[in-house]
Recover the amino acids of this structure.
């Protein structure tokens, strides 16, 4: 696939096949995340790869009972947890670059997974302290997001997107 095809193909998947992910594919998606740009090249992100069923269940337990993401975390063979070290980033003029940098790394990972024929689903609705405890993450590190990683057991249609005219201005705000 070319880049635009990868972007168009990416979907949030919540159902996965009981099929292991090859090491080469896991390393590929982690390498893509590692190469993401960051504020002052500080690279604040860290990733925890959770393959153990008990660990994946503990992460699912950090979510509310009604959260549909629970099934995705326990059903996929791998969960990748996005963490960030706040001291390895900065807030400048009220902009928190840790969140942007970590988000860029996660997006690289999600797109690389799609390129490798794997499914993902960005998860952010969980209790950070429960996830921190489950993974033994130190108090000075934030647990920001997680995604299941595996082969899709479902096919999802594209979601509606805003038109270019709704999101792009030329020269100044509001100018088409």
């Amino acid at each position: 696939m070319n880049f635009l095809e990868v972007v168009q193909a990416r979907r949030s998947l919540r159902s996965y096949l009981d099929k292991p992910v090859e090491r080469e594919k896991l390393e590929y998606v982690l390498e893509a995340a590692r190469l993401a740009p960051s504020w002052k090249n500080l690279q604040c992100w860290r990733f925890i790869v959770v393959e153990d069923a008990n660990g994946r269940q503990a992460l699912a337990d950090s979510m509310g009972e009604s959260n549909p993401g629970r099934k995705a975390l326990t059903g996929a063979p791998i969960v990748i947890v996005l963490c960030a070290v706040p001291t390895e980033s900065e807030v400048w003029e009220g902009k928190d670059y840790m969140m942007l940098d970590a988000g860029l790394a996660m997006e690289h990972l999600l797109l690389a997974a799609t390129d490798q024929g794997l499914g993902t689903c960005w998860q952010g609705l969980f209790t950070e302290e429960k996830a921190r405890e489950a993974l033994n993450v130190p108090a000075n590190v934030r647990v920001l997001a997680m995604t299941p990683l595996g082969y899709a057991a479902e096919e999802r249609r594209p979601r509606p997107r805003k038109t270019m005219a709704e999101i792009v201005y030329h020269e100044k705000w509001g100018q088409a």
Q: What stands out?
A: The first strand starts at residue 45 and ends at 50. DSSP finds seven helices and six strands in the chain. The two ends are 31 Å apart (CA to CA).
